[in-house]
Amino acid sequence: MSFRRKFSNSLATVLVSFAFLLALVPLISVMITTISGGAARFDLEFFTQSMRGVIGEGGGALHALVGTLLITLTATVISVPLGLFTSIYLVEYGRGRAAKVITFLVDVMTGIPSIVAGLFAYALFALILGPGTKLGIAGAIALTVLMIPVVVRSSEEMLRLVSQDLREAGSALGAPQWVVITKIVLPTALPGIVTGVLLSIARVIGETAPLLVAAGYTANMNYNIFSERMQSLPVYVYSQYTNQGNPAHAFLDRAWAAALVLILIVLLLNIVGRVIAKKFGVKTGR
Q: Which among 88, 142, 167, 217 is least buried, having the fewest CB atoms inside 10 angstroms?
């Protein structure tokens, strides 16, 4: 290798390493700040109490945790079948104009601002139940709009990774196409599909704007997603930070603690997704 090529290679390595370390600076800074700010209220009371009747110190985020769980779970139950069936259609059946239109719409949905999804859900339920209606299910619909394109794209990629030889082998044995899909294609791509679903959940679980618009916020526990407003962790962080009372540090401590919980949830989902993808993912090599 000539001196010029060695120098270019070394320079590129240094620049890439520097860029990597530079990208880590804000990430590490956010983690350190969140941990130091949230450690003060990362206690049992925070996970077992709501904000009902609390106007100063004390209280917790149990109602927000429950709301986040119910809203995200409902959004997942709605979006995963729709996204998976759409990806199956695009990969196995989609031909011509219909497939192009669906692909275009999925691309458009991928790029829409999250606040638009919240406005859509709010307007939908306002038309049905009247203006000012804010429900947990409305927040779930908003997250569904954001999750569907992610599920479609990830599932589509994993289905395309399944070897065509497997499909042809199933068809050669006389199995109809739906049997080949359900018995061969889907089981083979399932680990990657699960990874995509987990990553889509991690993508929407921290959304604030659509839930603030569609689901609102409350200090009370609410286990019924179809009735009344429902709190979520991102909105809890926003409300605690923007509506500081006396003493102000109590509200800030709760906000930082909720942000820390949210980061840990997203981190856990990403780790689980990576582990599943690495251990059970579709192997493209022979």
A: 167
